[in-house]
Amino acid sequence: MQAIIFDLDGTLVDSAPDIHAAANRMLAGLGAGPLDLETVTHFIGNGIEVLVRRCVEHLQLDLAETEIKSAVRDFSALYAADVATLTRPYPGARALLATLVDRRIPIGLCTNKPEAPARDILKRMSLASFFGVVVGGDTLPCRKPDPAPLLHTAAQLGAHPAQTLYVGDSGIDYQTAQRAGVPFAFFEGGYQRGEIKDFRPDHRISDLLEIAAL
Fold this sequence. Notes:
By secondary structure, this protein is α/β, with parallel strands linked by helices. The protein has two domains: 3-14 and 87-213, HAD superfamily/HAD-like (Rossmann fold), CATH 3.40.50.1000; 16-80, Putative phosphatase, domain 2 (DNA polymerase, domain 1, Orthogonal Bundle). Helix content is 40%, strand content 13%. The protein has helices at 16-29, 37-42, 48-58, 65-80, 93-102, 115-124, 148-156, 171-180, and strands at residues 3-6, 13-14, 88-89, 107-110, 133-135, 164-168, 184-187, 203-205. A six-stranded parallel beta sheet has the order 5-4-1-6-7-8, with helices on both faces. It starts with a strand and ends in a 9-residue tail after the last strand.
């Protein structure tokens, strides 16, 4: 294996509580909400704009497109100001990354979260030093499930796609890996709810430390 690339939210860190808090502050500014944690968690994975739109649709708010765009900006600012109060690494995350570094396996991050807050979370969780490459949802003109961000991450690590492992927790992550021709390990402890169509991951793990044995 030439490199391992990770998703962030729901894979390496449980960031849902901070995302939930920012979403409810954004909704309060619209005179709406709040939503419960489980509902907001289900909206994570496709980037900020999709999350905001899903919150608005769930509450059946009648907003013009300009108001939705404004809500996206509000959420982004609220979340950027408080990304790590409640966020925590999943058990085994730091130990796994340290093991991979000891084995000289290059590590990358490919997430739909914007790059700046992704880097901020890694820094605050004391995980930043493990990563050679960080690609966020705004690093390139496209985001997952387009394969370009994952392929870009692998290329920056000097790894061939077929010799790279992508670790994620969602159908979006799986689709991205499939389209990129990258083997996929599904983390069962993340945010995916419900079945994923035609789901045949190369590996299933319930504990991040299992990655070290693959």
